[in-house]
Amino acid sequence: MKVLQINAVYEYSSTGRTTTELHQYLLSQGIDSYVAANNVNDSEHFIKLSSVWSMHLHSFLSHLTGKQGYFSYFSTKKLLRKMDKIKPNVVHLRVLHSNCINLSLLLKYLAQHNIPTVLTLHDCWYFTGHCCYFTDSGCSKWKYSCGNCIDIKKWNSSWFFDHSKSNLKDKEKLFSIIPKVAVIGVSDWVTAFIKDSILKDSYIIRRIYNWIDLSKFFPHPTDVRKNFNIEQDFVVLGVAQNWTLSKGIEDIKIVAMHRPNYKFILVGNVFKETQPLPQNIIMAGVTSSVGELADYYACADVFLNLSMRETFGKVTIEALACGTPVVAYNLSATSELVKRECGFLCKYKDYDSIIHGLDTIRNKGKKSYSEACVEFVTSNFDKYKLMNDYIQLYKELQ
Question: What sequence ranges are listed for the domain Glycosyl transferase family (predicted)?
Fold first, then answer.
């Protein structure tokens, strides 16, 4: 069996690491695995999706027209020529709204060659006319017909035109011509939306959780506290690729101001617009090292996730795997990941509840939660079990 995964990135970020881990596991199981991504070079098992120049041009045209996934013609034709040689039995699509693919060319090719297609929903873009998430604005137009988009100036903003209605119609038509499409939600939360979307008639609809590598994320001693000179402090950790409003940066600032005796470590890119920060917030910067990230999780007394929406929330599971309890909003997929014995779920903007959760964990001690945290992750998010679920899915599509 030959499997081709297509994702914007390889190794980098949560989706890149998931792509990498599945690719390596497929090879170890005797399956011919291939990956197409922007940050790889052409080689035996890899296809470079798009050049930097092509991505910049795609980005410009997307902003100009309001149509993401309609350009990168030559890059996509090159990918299709590679696919002619590989002749994959299954193509697995992940994140493709990154100025790197001509979606129409790709999906028509999959239909013409009758290639079973797996669609993993790392966000909601595949069944909307523009946005990646509609929950922030409470929009439900994706269920029937987009248009007059509320978020047209947000994320991949369109400078002039609103083509969200035609974008959604195009996606509906393109996905409908592929004989076998398996749509996989990475949480119950996102999977539930499929039945009301343009993908509702797909061949298979299923939930397969994201996984984590338990050989890399586990309780262990670290030097992080020593390096920041906070060895005796109660440490609250937050992790995000970019600390935007939707990731809860302003809420974390409020909580930090109410608990000046706690130390808050933020891993990720903190924008100038969100500063200044309270003095008890430590900006650790961006890390691409899995080992360093695991050290941050393991050193913390509690992990704080105040994101407005998560399709899965891999950072939450990684923290739990390191024995660190979680305080989070009872929103989106996060509500599936934080059980009572592993931390606290709080109502949105309920700062008293958030602070109560932090204080309770401080009083009881991290060790009171660690065993339950690790057990929950081990039982539900082991990478080998979940990767085997994908292999079984590929076989079902044959």
Answer: 245-365
Based on the domain organization, do 193 and 257 belong to the same domain? no
* Residues 320, 203 within the same domain: no
Where do the DSSP E strands lie in the chain? 2-6, 32-37, 46-48, 90-93, 117-121, 181-185, 204-207, 234-243, 262-270, 281-285, 302-305, 326-329, 343-346
| Range of weakest confidence among 3-17, 151-165, 198-212, 327-341 | 151-165
pLDDT of residue 154: 82
Q: List the single range of 26-30, 143-147, 360-364 with lowest mean pLDDT.
A: 143-147
Of residues 218, 262, 271, the one with CA closest to residue 241: 271
* Rounded distance between C-alpha atoms, residue 215 and residue 311, angstroms: 24
Residue 136: pLDDT over 90:
no
CA neighbours closer than 13 Å in the CB half-sphere of residue 333: 26
| Domain hosting residue 393, numbered range | 2-211+383-397
Q: Which residue's structure tokens are 């029937």?
A: 144
The single-letter DSSP state of residue 382 is B
199 and 105 within one domain: yes
Residue 135 is predicted with a pLDDT of 86
Phi, psi (degrees; rounded to nearest 5) at 227:
-65, -30
| CATH number of the domain enclosing 275 | 3.40.50.2000
Total domains, the chain:
2
Extract the tokens encoding 332. Answer: 């989106």
User: Would you state the pLDDT for residue 140?
Assistant: 93
Same domain, 181 and 233: no
pTM of the model: 0.91
